[in-house]
Amino acid sequence: MESLRRLVATRTAVIVVLIFVGGTGIWWWRSRNDVKLTFRTAPIKRGTLVATIAATGTIEPVQVVDVGAQVAGRISSFGTDKVGKPIDYGSVVAKGAVLIRIDDSVYAADLAVAKAQLQEAKAGETTAAANLEQMKAKLAQAEADWKRTQELSEAKLIARDLYDSGKANYEVSKSNVTVADAAIAEAKAATVQAQAAVERAQRNLDFCTITSPVDGVIIDRRVNIGQTVVASLNAPSLFLIAQDLTKMQIWVSVNEADVGRIKPGTPVTFTCAALPGRQFEGVVDQVRLNATMTQNIVIYTVVVNTQNPDNVLLPYLTANVNFVVHQENNTLLVPNSALRWEPSSLAEIAPDVRSQNAFDPQGDALADSISISSKPNNSRKENRGVLWVKDGHYVRPLEVNVRATDGVNTAIAGDHLREGLEVVTGESVRSSQAATKNPFVPVLHHH
């Protein structure tokens, strides 16, 4: 009796399990058949692709001259520009035009003192020359006396002390001539020194009038009338002059990850917030090697040359720069999403493709069955990729060569590609059962 109860309980349990498994299978089969899968597609287009590197930079004049002062003093007046107005911001000046005048009273006095000292040195030179002539005359007299003394001494007509005295006088006269000659050299050196002092004082006086070293435009005036400038080890800066504003440069900060693709001669387009709706062009002049580090990121400065014939580009504007590192014309383009999309388990792959590549029922073998993992093709400098196209209710892979991208579209090439071919970019899953219950609120699942 007990064994009969156990047998009945076992069969009951088996029946319950079978009912549960069967119900689950029926539910799964019905739910799968109730799901409606739709694909989002986009056509292959033909056009131009421009791959760029975006960065920001500052517009700079090609050549800026910093005009300073070499003397100290109070600023007394400004010069005038080409139209006769006092020098100010934006003034156009010619080379040699007076920019500013510094009070020169002290330096004028120094020049007067130097000139007086020069006259004194020249007078000393004249005195030394006259003294030399006097010493030469005394030497001639002493020489004549010494000859007579020698003759008298040979005739034994004079005493020995007179002989010695005559000889001594002659030797002293020769020494006096030598001293007078040295005094002339000293006087001439003093004259040269005094002349140098005059030239230095004159130059300092000339420095009180500061002129423009180049033709250009005043982009910065850093002093006012009445202000005192003090020139010590470093010359105080008075003006910044841009030599030619029809040619400008952009100093662009480029991340180390991108700088390797930028070379001299790379074309550039840029815009400025101050000039909306306008796009300007330029070309890379140099990539400077003095990199800086900001928040552990190495930044290089790339210099871009551009033309500014109408002077609309102002110094120090911020430029939004795009380096054109690659351009393809008349090429086939697809959205980047088409190259990223892969079929989900609900998508049905064409039977011939599935059998050829041994797909499993859920389609999970895709990554292993088709070699599309961006393998570089060195001969054509391209990567491999795959697009999916609709084939009735199925999708079919189409292997392509992937070229450059601009971040939105990608240039592709390969067999069986044509303009207008629809490629899958995504899928939408819709439950028909849910739609039946509430036709106004469909349940959508996007992949």
**How many E-type strands?**
22
Query: pLDDT under 50 segments (min length 5)?
Result: 358-381, 434-447
Taken in chain order, the helices and strands follow as HEEEEEEHHEEEEEHEEEEEHHHEEEEEHE
Number of domains: 4
Helix amount: 25-40%
Biggest β-sheet strands, sense, barrel = 6 strands, antiparallel, barrel
In summary, what is this structure?
It contains eight helices and 22 strands.
Outline the structure in words.
It is a single chain. By secondary structure, the protein is of the alpha+beta class. The protein has four domains: about 35-50 and about 330-445, no CATH class; about 50-60 and about 245-325, Beta Barrel (Elongation Factor Tu (Ef-tu), domain 3); about 65-105 and about 215-240, Beta Barrel (OB fold (Dihydrolipoamide Acetyltransferase, E2P)); about 105-205, Helix Hairpins. It contains eight helices and 22 strands. The protein has helices at about 1-35, 105-155, 160-205, 255-260, 335-340, 350-355, 365-370, 430-435; strands at about 35-45, 45-60, 65-70, 75-80, 90-95, 100, 210, 215-220, 230, 235-240, 245-255, 265-270, 280-285, 290-295, 295-305, 320-335, 375, 380-390, 395-405, 410-415, 420-430, 445. A hairpin with a 2-residue loop joins β18 and β19. The longest helix has about 50 residues, at about 105-155. The protein starts with a helix and ends with a strand.
